Amino acid sequence: MLGIFQPNQSFHEWPTLAPNPTEWTYKYNLATILAAEEVGMSFAFPAARWAGLPGDDIVWRGASLDTITLTAALLAATTKITLLTTIHTNLLNPVVAAKYGVGLDHIGGGRWGLNVVSGWGAHEFAAMGVELLDHKERYAYTREWLDVVEMLWSDGEATLDGKYFKINKASGRPRPLQASPLIVNAGQSYTGMRFSAENADYIFCFGDLAEKFRKVRAEVGSECGFIGAKSVILGATTAEAKDRARQIVDQADRGALRNMLVASGAESLESAQGRMVSRDEVEEYLLGDAIIASAEDAGTQLADWAATNGVDGICLNLFDYLGDLQLIGSDTIPAFEAQLAKYGKKFRRPSVPEAISESTPV
Ligand SMILES: Cc1cc2nc3c(=O)[nH]c(=O)nc-3n(C[C@H](O)[C@H](O)[C@H](O)COP(=O)(O)O)c2cc1C
Prior knowledge:
The protein is α/β, with parallel strands linked by helices and 362 residues long. Helices cover 45% and strands 18% of the residues.
């Protein structure tokens, strides 16, 4: 399966002044999802952001569309692609979230899923006066939150005397069209991966962590699938792709990268300032594991990467979404499909879900 990380945030994953036609707007995201569905993408999910990170010249992700209203509109405009909604468990009561999920699943006719996130950026929550629990506890909280949501979806009612939630006969009717909407999580730490293995249908994870995740999955005897996140810088030719990659790095906003390293807890301000002086470090951060290639070569490389890492799907992070999706349809997917066949694997395209009776889940 192929899918995309939707560009619903300004500068998306690319804090750079390199010219980029991608927009975070609704109109642009609608066109992107229609194009993604048209070329054969199976899924897409948006980013949930509550604050941007200031840089030297930009505010990285300073504007973003909320994920619930966006997904609702996009589900109404599509027929085959599965759309996931990213929701922060620390920001939404689970009874409310479960109800939003039901609405989204009904609008999409059973093509909806939940990307459940526990939060990482202290800067986002401090501004709202919301406590960010410590890392391990965040996942315990999310587990209880998901218990309530799943109870409502399966039984239409929930009662839980938990550590974080006191739920007393909460009502969740109607139930979703799908017996159990898809659950995805994007934890990268051991705790996050274990949460995914125990609770999710798929983990979204950086591709080089596939082996680590397989071990965690084996520990808990889970069948959770692995979707590898992959940045792809495309051009009509390899030279064009390399030129685009060079511009991204040359015009990177180093202040934004430095502040990201600090906000994510990866580094102290002093160490982040030191690291982001070097062009090589900037390149490694932005493009370290990216595929930089002509659209056709990218298809072959993606198939090699998917087969070598045993991934079930690839979540693409693009630069010029609409332009790239055109190239992906014409050149990347045919090469991807042909190369996968050499490994005895088949590219899975999306299809309209089988009719689900709307009277069943009430
Ligand atoms: C592909 C991908 C998309 C993500 N999208 C979001 C998002 O939209 N909002 C958010 O707060 N965190 C997002 N995250 C962060 C994860 O939820 C998680 O906090 C992070 O990967 C750290 O993992 P850990 O909690 O196991 O340490 C995303 C992560 C990945 C890999």
